[in-house]
Amino acid sequence: MAAIQNNDGASRGHFGSRFGFIMAAAGSAVGVGNIWGFPTQAASNGGGAFLMVYMFLIFLLGYPMLVAELMVGRHGQTNPADAMAKLGRSPVTKMIGSLIGLASIICAAMIFSFYAVLSGWFVSNTLAPIATMVGADEVSRWLIDFSFSRNAVFTLVFALMCIYVIQKGVQDGIEKWSKRLMPLLFAILIASVIYILFQPGAMEGVSALFTVDFEKVMHPDVIIGALGQTFFSLSIGTGAMMIYGSYLKANENISKLAVHVTFMDTGVAFLAAMLILPAMYVAKHNGVTIFDGSGNLLSSDTLVFTVLPALFATMGAAEHIVAIIFFALMSVAALTSAMSVVEVPTSYIVDKTAMSRKKVTWIVGAALTALAMAVVSNFDFMFGFMIKLATEITQPLVCLGLAIFVGWLWHRNSLLTEIKGQDGADENGIFWKVWPLYVKFVCPALIIVLISTTL
Ligand code: PFF
């Protein structure tokens, strides 16, 4: 495997190709957040209006912050704690930088703790129709129903899938699997959208998505939801993109790569909305309940794990195959995202110790799985708590710290060297002239305003 030297002289992995990086970074970004989170949030929060606020935040805040995170990672050529410390100008700011980096690593661990549980459900729901087809009805019920044993087993299964990929390294693990799984995900998603749009009732779902209700969007909860969704969806503030940036070569043009990643991420969120919302209304057309007593759409977990299977059940011969395809899509999206989360603490410990990557991955994987098991054991409290703590508090705060470090502390000459080293980047061009100022003033201001709406 190709390797470059880090500060300590140990070898670090790096992406073998630009395409490999884009697939891996888009793989991290495109996940459960896009396919489940975004459509259901849009559906309950003002349809097209939510879509507009979200797109606005993605391009005005998400994209420049994604560029910032990738730049810091590539500049540092190391884990988030040391990469952030490198930007500090004094021992105190170096220490603060390192603490922000550590907070992002802890945030990655928190994300894994609930993401693995959720993703385990997708894997078990993929297997359930297969169990039914071979006549194992009891197993199939167990795979579908919420229970401690099912949750524990499939959290473990999913964690093992992530560990398997990550212990293989950057090129043989992350890059190889992202290049295989992402095209598969796009193919399944596009085929599913085309299929659903031809079903009776689908157009009502399309119009629900495009109905613009600004009253609902202007609620602080909705705006903070959209902000959380922006950072969560682009995987920023968790060190994941910083690590992937650290595996990039000095000549790669980050502003261009980040455009690909951002477009894929929003494109998939949009396509997923064009799948899930029409599917809801097809289900309604087929007699399945999709609204609660007060006329609101049912909660997102009910929609995905109850309404959609009820819809599949109305599809006759295609029932099982459609269910397998849908949950496989969710599982693939979840896997490429969770991999990047596991990579964050793994790379930190690989950098900090002399242990082999394989060994570190198993140790980190075991610790993360234990945390996810704590969520499984105390689901009612921990699941929601971890989501809130990680996505609504830690991620925005880490992003604020990142914007301040990049905007205010990164030494101009060092930043210019980083910019100039990229193929086709003109440090006097409009983008690289505006971006540092934008990250310095606009990003922190936007994040502070948005965070303060929750207080
Ligand atoms: N971006 C992923 C999603 O939308 O599902 C979730 C995620 C992955 C968040 C990796 C954070 C992260 F570091």
Automatic annotation (TrEMBL):
<feature type="transmembrane region" description="Helical">
    <location>
        <begin position="321"/>
        <end position="342"/>
    </location>
</feature>
<feature type="transmembrane region" description="Helical">
    <location>
        <begin position="21"/>
        <end position="39"/>
    </location>
</feature>
<protein>
    <submittedName>
        <fullName>Sodium-dependent transporter</fullName>
    </submittedName>
</protein>
<feature type="transmembrane region" description="Helical">
    <location>
        <begin position="182"/>
        <end position="202"/>
    </location>
</feature>
<keyword id="KW-0472">Membrane</keyword>
<feature type="transmembrane region" description="Helical">
    <location>
        <begin position="362"/>
        <end position="381"/>
    </location>
</feature>
<keyword id="KW-0813">Transport</keyword>
<keyword id="KW-1133">Transmembrane helix</keyword>
<feature type="transmembrane region" description="Helical">
    <location>
        <begin position="222"/>
        <end position="245"/>
    </location>
</feature>
<keyword id="KW-0812">Transmembrane</keyword>
<feature type="transmembrane region" description="Helical">
    <location>
        <begin position="430"/>
        <end position="451"/>
    </location>
</feature>
<feature type="transmembrane region" description="Helical">
    <location>
        <begin position="92"/>
        <end position="118"/>
    </location>
</feature>
<feature type="transmembrane region" description="Helical">
    <location>
        <begin position="51"/>
        <end position="72"/>
    </location>
</feature>
<feature type="transmembrane region" description="Helical">
    <location>
        <begin position="152"/>
        <end position="170"/>
    </location>
</feature>
<dbReference type="InterPro" id="IPR000175">
    <property type="entry name" value="Na/ntran_symport"/>
</dbReference>
<feature type="transmembrane region" description="Helical">
    <location>
        <begin position="393"/>
        <end position="410"/>
    </location>
</feature>
<feature type="transmembrane region" description="Helical">
    <location>
        <begin position="257"/>
        <end position="277"/>
    </location>
</feature>
<dbReference type="Pfam" id="PF00209">
    <property type="entry name" value="SNF"/>
</dbReference>
<dbReference type="InterPro" id="IPR037272">
    <property type="entry name" value="SNS_sf"/>
</dbReference>
<dbReference type="InterPro" id="IPR047218">
    <property type="entry name" value="YocR/YhdH-like"/>
</dbReference>
<dbReference type="GO" id="GO:0016020">
    <property type="term" value="C:membrane"/>
</dbReference>
